[in-house]
């Protein structure tokens, strides 16, 4: 009988305790596992230590699954599960398989008839959307926007048009060192009435969330800096 693949939620900030980030039932399951498939082994060890895993970390099996993992390696990662061993899939932060390379493993697990169980825990996308006050019934997560400024501004204009047409919140992220460039382009491109939200360092003591119309952002555009952040916009129906 095959093992179960548990989707293990990791903290969004190392400044937040594991007890504050993950429910007790999920922590108990994490502590019962000895095999983990993680986006980053170093981050996984730090989180497992914070979870007070009962086994010495050196005795745990932690293998990496990153964006650079060849597709043909996915089957090898499933072997312990096919041998009947339960395993945990971990992202570097938040829920695995959402904006995360772990989705390929989850798909392969389903194809192999391996049971997949998501554990309850933090998702920066959901937390940001809930805290924004924007449309929560219709929303679309679009991942990263183009890195080059002209292409990024074009993408922003397209997202704003889609938001207005569908009355749909657009949710996206950026590499932290480009946060301020992205915010500058959002403020430059979007209509004054478009509502824009930024949620930075969610769940940490430095958590910062602001939602206001673009014209207000233009009057006061703060520096976000190199902080993990989620961006959301909702345009008026035209």
Explain this structure.
- With 238 residues, this protein is of the alpha/beta class.
- It folds into two domains: 4-118, Tetrapyrrole methylase, N-terminal domain (Cobalt-precorrin-4 Transmethylase, domain 1, 3-Layer(aba) Sandwich), CATH 3.40.1010; 124-234, Tetrapyrrole methylase, C-terminal domain (Methyltransferase, Cobalt-precorrin-4 Transmethylase, Domain 2), CATH 3.30.950.10.
- It is built from ten helices and ten strands.
- The strands form two sheets. Strands 3-2-4-1-5 form a five-stranded parallel β-sheet, with helices on both faces. It has a five-stranded mixed β-sheet with strand order 6-7-10-8-9.
- α3 (41-50) links the parallel β2 and β3.
- α8 (149-166) packs across α9.
- The longest helix has 18 residues, at 149-166.
- The protein is elongated, with a radius of gyration of 20 Å.
